[in-house]
Amino acid sequence: MGDLSELFAPGRVAVVGATEREGSVGRAIVENLIEDFDGEVVPVNPKYDEVFGLPAVADVGETDADLAIVVVPPHIAVDAVRQAGEAGIQNVVVITAGFGETGSEGAAREQELTEVAEEYDLNLVGPNSLGIMSTPKGMNATFGPENATSGNMSFMSQSGAFITAVLDWANDEGIGFKDVVSLGNKAVLDESDFIDAWGTDEQTDVVIGYLEGIEEGREFIDTAREVTQDTPIVLVKSGRTDAGAQAASSHTGTIAGSDQAYEAGLEQAGVIRAESVQELFDSAQMLANQPLPDSKEIAIITNAGGPGVMSTDAVGDSSLSMASFSDETLEEFSEKLPEEGNIYNPVDIVGDADNDRFSEALDVALADENVGMALVLTCPTAVLDYEQLAEDTVELRKEHDKPVAACFMGGERVKPAAEILQESGIPNYFDPSRAVFALDALSDFKDISRREYDEPTEFDVDEERAREILESVKGRDDTRLGVEAMGLLDAYGIETPQGDIIDSPADALEVAEDIDGNVVMKIVSPDILHKSDIGGVKVGVEDEDVYDAYEDLITRARNYQPDANIIGVQVQEMVDLDNGVETIVGMNRDPQFGPLLMFGLGGIFVEVMEDTTFRVAPVAENEAHTMTEEIDSAPLLRGARGRDPVDVDEVTETIQRLSQLVTDFPAILELDINPLVALPDGAKAVDVRLTVDPDEL
Ligand code: ADP
Ligand code: MG
């Protein structure tokens, strides 16, 4: 996508559909633009000679504008955009609604709009957008009632209504913006384009957004990763319903909904995800105004015991930890604080603390090199001047160059102090947990900005053999594959137990005799998804029982479904489950993010426990390794209760190899290796199930 700087800083703006008609969007836009815009506004409307005293032209082609705002009705909007393109206007905001959001006719119109934009290489916002704002230029090209005040955050939203609500509130709170964009239907420019543009914009220090969906997941991840090396991105993503409404036949498909994909995708992108609007602004304001902490150690200075405990709890829920003070600090505290106080963290300077005691304590704490950040937590008392405390806090924050959050609890009484704090970039929170959350986001961002993203490992694999196996579904109604596709794993270097699929008891015995010890026998049929549910898996079969086991498996399958397509029986080497852990490694294709990998505990527990974790493929080694560490039952892998630890490196490699397989073959819609038995020495895939889309092959 092209450079968006002219979109936000045009010299001349054309309003196509400008009018003075009461209550119209065309009027609101012109009025909003005239108010502060440091540039020229050209009304376009063949019906008028002038609009609000500005000379109007009949055609956007006559405007010589840098940006065209289109508000004309839908049936002529596409033509207006085409004319703008023909006239060399590169930036267009389509306010007009009645496109993709309104059914098939609208969708066709949107398609046409996209084609026109492509033809002329336009930076096109919308359609169905509230418009855009950019405060350095004083440009309010929206039809909203409120203009933004200037600041260093840039804000995009998929809901225009939400923008108007946020601005109304933000103006009250003294929160300002650099650019504001109502994304509309995102026919051309989407979130990734704006993240990319703001990432290199000197005046944007934080990118924030409200999104309902992400168009191109992988592009989003790659763009955001680069931007978050120095610019934080905080997003609220709404809508936890399942976008991937495909009927899933794998465990991974059942568990992996679109929210798992977003959670994984945003995490991998380095985006800080806010669960609410409050979290969005709490963290964004901190990120916009304060330095990054040197450590996660927080000091809490308070004149109130109860809130002190609350904030300590909040620290416990965060990634931060309570700082342990140095000996010198403790000595100074004992000298300066009354005996009934607490010199340890949270530092209780007691209810009768005056301003001197408060700021002295904060000064001492911030000077301690074990302290990375501080929280000033106070309840109103008769001896404390809140405004003075606010000024001292601002002063000390600057002097020590460490992040400080304020929690001056109260209502009317704290307002003037909160304003002093806010003006200097120290947001005041009523609730200590919000203050801790915001500091935590700051510390999170520090970790994100230092992340190194490794390239995925490229394993040497047999892609041709894999393709042949996948192509076996061509021409079939049922495109699911089971253990008959074990070779697929083998082709990608994922270890499978010794064994074979045969279709007679005699052959079964032959295979069994080749295998050391007892064997496992399984029914092989595309119609039987969960083999053990029908007694279709026999574990620990001795050679002399192989004949009977074979007949019994076939009988069970016939009883279950008389016309089942039975391929045969798999005879497989026993894997040492006593010393192993059953895990699941799977993939489900998400409509936005593509292949979503899952790892968790496997076997029969996966559905009940849902102790799983997700990543968008392809993953690098460190990401695959993190997956094995972040499930709740990770200690089981490391050898709980005197058992040997399992080979986590091999599990990690299996995740990476599966990642490569599903990246190489978009035709694989979903896949489970359940279980992948992790052993003290190696890992073996004993079962596999997948669904293939032959059209993608
Ligand atoms: P399904 O999931 O269709 O029921 P599986 O092949 O996963 O069939 O087998 C079910 C369970 O049987 C596995 O979770 C595992 O506990 C056990 N099992 C399967 N194959 C083996 C094997 N080769 N060695 C040891 N246990 C096995
Ligand atoms: Mg299984």
UniProtKB/TrEMBL annotation:
One Pfam family matching this protein: CoA_binding_2
Listed EC numbers: 6.2.1.13
Catalytically driven reaction(s): acetate + ATP + CoA = acetyl-CoA + ADP + phosphate
Keywords: ATP-binding, Ligase, Nucleotide-binding, Transferase
Domain CoA-binding, residue spans: 7-99
Molecular function in Gene Ontology: acetate-CoA ligase (ADP-forming) activity; ATP binding; transferase activity
Protein name: acetate--CoA ligase (ADP-forming)
Lineage of the species this protein comes from: Archaea, Methanobacteriati, Methanobacteriota, Stenosarchaea group, Halobacteria
